[in-house]
């Protein structure tokens, strides 16, 4: 059984005869008749009663006609979707992102993208930096927001992320333009748990500076760190990608020997895996949006410049 036979079956039922249906389908009458004989033999039921030159659907034929119309409509829909996929108009994009990127970048981008590309569905997976790298390696996501400089992946640079110290405005250190890591040696700190990129950068800087931080709490919530710092329960250490309240808390770039602590970030993908055209369009639009609107721009102006890596386009 194939779609040609089903199309001929529907045409004969609509036309009320083989000859007229064959003309409409640009087939010879014997070819149309043979198709029906093969179809009836395969299905094991008689589809038509033959009355002279005309035909009439049997009860079995009436039931199968409805199903045949649906199959033909589904096949047409499949062809149209395939054409849209080829043209980059429809599909599913799985992207992995950190909570700050979701809150500050994606929330301002996704609604507009949906309006421009209604046939593209976006599925978001939230995780920390290390988790996102693992998900990208496994193929759980097609795109991921990760630190730049990982040669395993292709990608596009987004923006620099600085490690910052956040504290209530009454804190004695809050007026500093930048804060040397050594000045935190005796300060109580509220950190993100291990697995977040900014925590790894902070730990590496502390190890280099031979500083053992005084950690009060390790949290998986950026908002918890902000809230505790605003309440005066220690200094919070966060990435500059986090959105902060406009009042009551102050952010200061954290430096070691006058050099910023942090990294550039990128939207990465596995160069060994195929990127559909609609994914490439998504990448271009998101990169442009992120460069215009990325969080922490004001803090970056007050911090020593982070070295910009080469754009790792695959």
Task: Give a verbal description of the structure.
The protein has 314 residues and is of the alpha/beta class. It has 3 domains: 3-87, Winged helix-like DNA-binding domain superfamily/Winged helix DNA-binding domain (Arc Repressor Mutant, subunit A); 91-158 and 263-302, D-Maltodextrin-Binding Protein, domain 2 (3-Layer(aba) Sandwich), CATH 3.40.190.10; 160-262, D-Maltodextrin-Binding Protein, domain 2 (3-Layer(aba) Sandwich), CATH 3.40.190. 42% of the residues lie in helices and 25% in strands. It has 11 helices and 13 strands. Strands 3, 4, 5, 6, 7, 8, 9, 10, 11, 12 and 13 form an 11-stranded mixed beta sheet that branches. Strands 1-2 form a two-stranded antiparallel sheet. The longest helix is centred in the first third of the chain and has 29 residues, at 59-87. The chain is rod-shaped and about 100 Å long. The model has no long low-confidence stretch (mean pLDDT 91).
Question: What's this model, at a glance?
Answer:
The chain has 314 residues and is α/β, with parallel strands linked by helices.
């Amino acid at each position: 059984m194939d779609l040609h036979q089903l199309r001929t079956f529907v045409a004969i039922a609509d036309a009320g005869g083989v000859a007229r249906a064959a003309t409409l389908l640009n087939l010879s009458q014997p070819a149309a008749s043979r198709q029906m004989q093969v179809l009836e033999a395969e299905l094991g039921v008689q589809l038509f009663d033959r009355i002279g030159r005309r035909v009439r659907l049997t009860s079995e034929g009436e039931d199968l006609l409805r199903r045949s119309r649906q199959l033909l409509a589904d096949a047409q829909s499949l062809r149209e979707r395939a054409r849209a996929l080829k043209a980059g108009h429809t599909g599913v994009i799985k992207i992995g992102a950190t909570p700050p990127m979701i809150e500050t970048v994606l929330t301002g981008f996704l609604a507009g993208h949906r309006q421009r590309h209604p046939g593209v569905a976006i599925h978001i997976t939230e995780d920390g930096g290390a988790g996102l790298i693992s998900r990208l390696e496994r193929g759980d996501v097609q795109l991921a927001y990760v630190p730049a400089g990982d040669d395993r992946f292709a990608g596009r640079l987004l923006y620099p992320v600085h490690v910052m110290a956040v504290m209530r405005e009454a804190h004695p250190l809050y007026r500093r333009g930048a804060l040397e890591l050594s000045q935190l040696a005796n300060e109580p700190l509220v950190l993100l748990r291990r697995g977040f990129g900014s925590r790894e950068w902070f730990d590496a800087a502390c190890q280099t500076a031979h500083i053992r931080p005084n950690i009060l709490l390790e949290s998986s919530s950026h908002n918890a760190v902000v809230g505790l710092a605003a309440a005066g329960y220690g200094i919070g250490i966060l990435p500059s990608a986090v959105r902060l309240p406009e009042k009551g808390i102050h952010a200061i770039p954290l430096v070691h020997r006058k050099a910023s602590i942090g990294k550039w970030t990128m939207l990465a993908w596995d160069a060994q895996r195929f990127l559909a055209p609609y994914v490439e369009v998504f990448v271009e639009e998101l990169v442009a949006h992120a460069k215009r609107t990325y969080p922490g721009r004001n803090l970056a102006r007050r911090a020593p410049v982070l070295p910009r890596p080469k754009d790792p386009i695959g």
